[in-house]
Every structure is written in C-alpha cells, then in structure tokens.
Amino acid sequence: MTTFFNNLNDSGFRKNFLFLSFLMLLFLALRIIQGDFRLSDSDDYFATAELLKNGDYFSTTTDFGKATLLTKRPFLYPLLILFPGFSNDLTIVLFQTLLGFFNIYLILKLFKRLGGKSFRLVTVLLLLTPSVFIYTHLIMTEALVMTLSLLIALQLIGSFDSKKILKIQLLLIALVFLKPAFYLFSIVSLLFFLFYFVKTKTFRYSVFLPLLFTIGYMGFNKERTGYFHFSSMQNINLIDYNLYLFKAQKEGTEAANQWRDAIYLEVEKLPTFEKQSEFLATEGKKVIQENLISYSIFHFYGSVRGSIDPGRFDLMTLVEKYDPNQGFLNMLSTAGLQKTISNFFGYKYFWIVLILIPIFIATLFKWGFIFRYLWERRKRIDFSGSYLLIFISYAILITGPVNASRYMMPLQGILIAYAVISWENFRTKKSSTKQ
User: Fold this and answer.
1) Which of 48, 326, 357, 407 falls between 20 and 30 A from 128, CA-CA?
2) Is residue 183 a contact partner of residue 228, using CB atoms and an 8 Å limit?
3) How far apart are CA 337 and CA 188, in angstroms?
4) What pLDDT, on the 0 to 100 scale, is given for residue 3?
5) How far apart are the C-alpha atoms of 191 and 207, rounded to whole Å?
6) Separation of alpha carbons 410 and 408, rounded Å
7) At what angle do helices 209-225 and 185-200 cross, to 10 degrees?
8) Which DSSP state fits 158?
9) Tens of pLDDT along 187-217?
C-alpha cells in the first residue's frame, strides 16, 4: 500500500492515472448504453460455471458434445462468475472495471520502474489502444490475463532471485487456468529456467509447479472423458479455425466447408470422445504435414498480421451485436485483400474505419520502437529480458491465423511501456548527438 500511495504522490503518475481511469469509466458508460456485456465465448464461461454450480463439472462422460463442453474452459474464470454477489452481467463488469483501474496502475508502475518519465505519451498510446478499455467491460478473461501478464513483467525487472522465480511460477499457473492457450508455455518456461540454472549454477524446485499442475489437470480430464488433454479448444481451434481458414484461403470457402463437414461426419461414426478427439488431432496433423511450409507461413503471417490489427471488431461491439464472420481479418483470410477493401468502402459504419487510421499508426509506432529497443539491446538482453521476450513471442505465435487485437489486448500495457522507453532513449540519444 505504501508503494501505491508513493506512486500516486508523483504528479505525472497521478494525473495520467486519473485521466485513464476516467476513460475507463467512459467506456463503461458506452458499454452500459450498448447493453450487451457478452461475446460468444462468454456463454462458454457461464456454461462451465453452471457445471461447477450443479456438480456436473466433476462427472464423467464419453459423449462428444458433453465432454467438449466439460473440458472447453478451465475453471478459474467460471469460479469468479459464481462469486457471491455476482448476480448479473453488470455486477461482473463493474468488478472488472475495478480490475481495469488496477491494470492502468500496473502499466504506469511498470513504465516508472523501467525509468520512464513520459507518462503523457503512455496515456496517448493507451487512448489509441481502445481494446484495453473495451475488453475490460466484456465478460471475458482478457482483463485478468492482462493483470497476470503485467505482474509477470514487473517480476522480470532486474535479476532473478528465489522469490521472483516462485512468484512467476504461481502467476503462470493462474494464467494457464485462465487461458488454455498458455498450457504449453509451462514446458517452455521450465526449459528456460533449467537452462538458466545450468548457466548460473543454481536451482529452484518451484519451476516444476506449472507443468505439474498442467499434467495433473490433463489427467483429471482423462478421468472425466477418457482422453488425456488440457482443453477441447485444442481440436476446435485446430479444425474449426486454423485449418479451416487455411483451406478457405487456399481452396475457397466452399471447399473448406466441405472438408470440415466431412471430418465431423466421420467423428459422428466413432463411439467415444477419446476416439473422436484422436481422429480430429490426427486429421489436423495430417493436413499440416502435407502442407508444412505453406501452413507454417500462413500461421506465422496470421500471428504477425494480428499483432498490428487496429481492432474494428472491438469498436463494433460498442455499436451493435456483432457478427465475427464480418471481421476484417476473417474477410482477409477467406475473401482476399481486394474484396475486403471494396467491402470496407461500402461499409455503413465508415466512421469506424476513419477512427482505425490513427489507431493503426499508433500500433506501427509501438512496434517500430519495440524493435528499436530490442536492436539497441541485442547484446545486453539478460535472462529476465529474454524470458519476457519469449513470453510475448509465445503469446503472439500460438494464436496463429486467428490473432487479432482482442488476443493482443493483455500484452498492450507491456508493449506500450517498452515502446515509450525506447522512444525516450531515442530522444535522449538524438539530443546528445546534436550537442
């Protein structure tokens, strides 16, 4: 608490914190006026919460539909939904608004800990990153994932010690059970720290915790469904999104639909969830192996493209109940660039397209100075910095062709803090050169 009030005693910190908090309230008001606090994924969290509430979460089944729902979303966020007092969507969103204030504080704290002084530029870049505010007020995990990501980043300032290493493991465990995509990072993190221990001749058993919890949960899912896996989202993402979009771009939407429908027809013939899941995984791997280079390029390109997505989908959620199939990146993946651009200019909310222009410019500014920061420190990146770089790279690359501003939102506070630090270093170097 002392550190909290000390930071607020800093005039620049306090003014920008209050201004950004006001923006958070403004976006909350817009969300309340719009009236819809959910996206399609939100319903999955409520369904899992219902399973927890009536005890069915611990039941066993081999039925494909039931087992898919049972293991689709980990329990952490659904438990939050069940918290006493969270009787409706607005109550949950009000709690997340408080979390949003805390995230703003953490972003400014990270920036200050890095030695930053240009709080105003941090505020401008946050203003031009509306996803930070928009997803705080939707019933999704993004705001909590941002909190955990920022807390991890704060632990990565300076050298590692036993306390920091333990805190990182505990934060990573929470992250894995919020966002299934991070379950493989428990392996990446363990390998990193084992390498670090070899280099520094130290050792901490705590680095095994995330992987042990991950394997334990996969074993729990095997007990419930007969299939050893972390989340049914693995096969859903593989077949329904990544490879479907790959097929749509390569062979056309009709061919992609036929391929997907044919796979699920075969799935229906298999007797158990285990056999069905193994079939989906095998079919997915077969397509990737047959198109290894072209799919790898497609996956990498989608990841990078999503990292500069200005967020038309996000802004649309403030206007109407949005159809994700009309999103810019979805159209780009299926219809191609020319048709997507022509659709844009005939779009009824063309003013949103105009708002996206400065947002896109700000995104390029962020990435430009982040790459400059990495280039300037290429020979001086320590273990802590390397871990953060690996963490961010993993979060971007794991999303593949579905990456968009929504998935980038939890990383934005970290990216903005380091981008502005890089900009300050650039200005300082430029000033010293003139003298």
Assistant:
1) 326
2) no
3) 35
4) 72
5) 9
6) 6
7) 150
8) S
9) 999 999 999 999 999 999 999 999 999 999 9
